[in-house]
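ingest -> validate -> predict -> emit
validate: passed (alphabet ok, no gaps, 280 aa)
predict: started
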Amino acid sequence: MDYDDVSIGVALSGGATRGMAHIGALKALHDNGIHADMIAGTSIGALVAALYAFGIPIEEMYEHAVELNWLKVSSFSLSRTGLLSNKPIGEMVERFIGDADISQASIPLAIVTTDIATGEKVVLREGNVATAVMASTCVPGIFKPVELNDRLLVDGYLLENVPVTPLKEMGADVIISVNLSARKRYRIPDGIFDIVLNAFDIAVDANVRRGLPISDVVIEPDLFSILDSETANPAVAFFDEGYTATMARLQAIKSMLTKKHREKKHPVWHKVKNWLSTSM
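emit:
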């Protein structure tokens, strides 16, 4: 069925090194003729979303992603606000797409960040792409915040780890979310450091659970079992699991697209149908 009249929004969550699963998910959608009309990303999801929105081929993203490691995306920083700088992430984005503005993306793009000085969610729809991705991937306490437009920006996962509301505001008919934090197993605390990390993760995951109902279809790869295993190449395993989990939700995605297509084709009938179902 032709879904050209249905606008598809894809939300890519944060998830650090598990972000390789996003590339697998996009590959599965692409292989089945499902293409994002708009895309939003938080943290590592912002990096993948930016590259996708600017037309970087999925195969090229895969080739570069398997070679990434912590040292390649960070550098030492003499700052009171962070131990490291994630400037190398911004430089990597510029190598791919140049000194571009978010508004120039071939696919409408939204990048979610957090103003650490005010606690506000800041959704970037314009401005330098590399700077926006740096801000969204800036883990507080690890990387120094990014100063932008009189704001001090850090990782967007603090407030909206699965960025569905920007897509709703952009007018997406169907929102497909990829949540990389599903099936998380919290560590058994062995000291105050573990307790603080658990508290942080629990708070973030609670925000995720509140936002996911806005999505029409949620894809949740099982990535933590890979982390717990002795997989020789976890990046490849993350990609494969992202692809597999998306394929498992393919029928649900097509059903939702078909439903929205029919609603657009026969709007009056569906309004009557919905009225009858709520009145009985």
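The chain is about 45% helix and 20% strand.
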